[in-house]
Amino acid sequence: MLERLVERLFPSRASTQTWMILTLLLVVGIAVAAVGLYITFVLRSEVQIAYQQTMLQQISRVTAILESEQDPARKLDHIQTMTRFGDLRITVVEGQTVVDMDRGGQRENDDLMDEPEMASADGPAFQFTQREVAGQTIYFTTTRTPSGTLIRVAQPRPPLFGLIGRLQFTLIVAMIMALLLAVFGSWIAAQRVTQPLVAIRNSAAAISEGKLEEEIFVDSRAAEFQDLAKSLNLMSDTFKEKIDELQKMAALQNEFIGNVSHEVRNPIFAVGGYLEALASDGLDAQKRKFYAEKGLTNLERLNNLFSDLIEIARLEYREDLIKPTVFELSELLDEVYEIEKSRAAEKGIDLVVENPVVHVRADRARIRQVLINLTDNAVAYSDEGTVRCRYRRHLDKVRVEVVDNGRGIPEEHLEHIFERFHRVDPDRSRKSGGTGLGLSIVKQILAAHGENIHVESTVGRGTRFWFELAYEASEDAEANA
Predict the structure, then answer these.
(1) 9-44 pLDDT, tens per residue?
(2) The domain that contains 371 carries what CATH number?
(3) Are residues 310 and 350 in the same domain?
(4) Residue 132 pairs with which residues in a beta bridge?
(5) Bridging pattern class, strands 359-362 and 397-404
(6) Spatial contact of 443 and 453, defined as CB atoms under 8 Å apart
(7) Are residues 141 and 6 part of one domain?
(8) Under 8 Å between Cβ of 424 and 410
(9) In angstroms, what CA-CA distances link 466 with 383, 395, 409?
(10) Which domain range does residue 225 map to?
């Protein structure tokens, strides 16, 4: 039963507004109840005890005065004075003599000894009683002196008790009003707190449903809510960027997988076809050699494709593969010339790599790969003319260029030539054994160096690729300077 009551008063799930009102109501209610109980029981009891102490002091004083006076007339004068100025009713029974006097004078009461407090007074101890007399509450204190004199002091209920009663009523009303105001104030405060929270919750729900353009706005002057909304909006923007990036990556991945499957399938089918041809009966030696060479060419193409794919993956996920050193650039270009000169000569193309001595800081092996790819690409797409590898220093950089006067690249392809498997002339590139990944590898290597690859081309006039490397002053150059 108690658990059900607690569950109803404090449910396991409720709105923030409900919890705030219940919490404030509980705290204020406990305070109101505590004050009410104190006023009802403790304060009234303390006032009652204090008044009893006052009455006992009064009867003690009366007793001391009467016991010290032997003259009956003087005793009567003392009693009359105390009743007049103390608003007391004093009753003295000494033997057969009975004096019952209040502010109005001597009282006549034949049933005096039958009154409860008089009949019960049988010892020196003080007795405190109260009863209603003629619709008025009267407090009585009685005692019997050692000489046998019975003394009673009576006093009407003092105005202080009425004041305490009114104060109690006023405090109770004030506490009820405070409780109501607390509920109303907590409702207003909860509204100011819960409205921004509701706005944030609704915006967050919209964002979770995919409405990433939803902006969280709170109409509040509270700095915490403003900061929270700002942080959530920044987080939402970050998530949106990440999601857009993931979507682009997923699209690129799907495109990449499609391109890879297509590029791999062709040489595999070709190798399979040539192997089937080789298995045919009646092939002469020349045909058998032709099919074997074609099969080996496609296997080499497939091997190059996988090597390039592995290289791209390593460059993307392993930044430590770039190990910069200082090297002389013209020596590297001479190596590229030795590799590419025979192919250029077969096509009647002049390959020019004459350059001055200059030192750069980069990964020599990777830059060698870049220059080979760019030079090989220039030779492959040139039918005649010149392919020139050159560079020049500018401040703290060295600009390296690979220029040809071949067929050029159409403008619509310039934005895509660094994408994987993008080919300006697919038929020609497949015949030359290209994988369509060379320029993509160039871009990855230079990006790992913190540099970009640039291109400009005019159809029929040629193409120029260029990139920059960090210049490094050599000791010989400094000595000559």
Answers:
(1) 555 666 666 767 777 777 777 877 787 777 777 777
(2) 3.30.565.10
(3) no
(4) 137
(5) unpaired
(6) yes
(7) yes
(8) yes
(9) 21, 16, 15
(10) 221-316
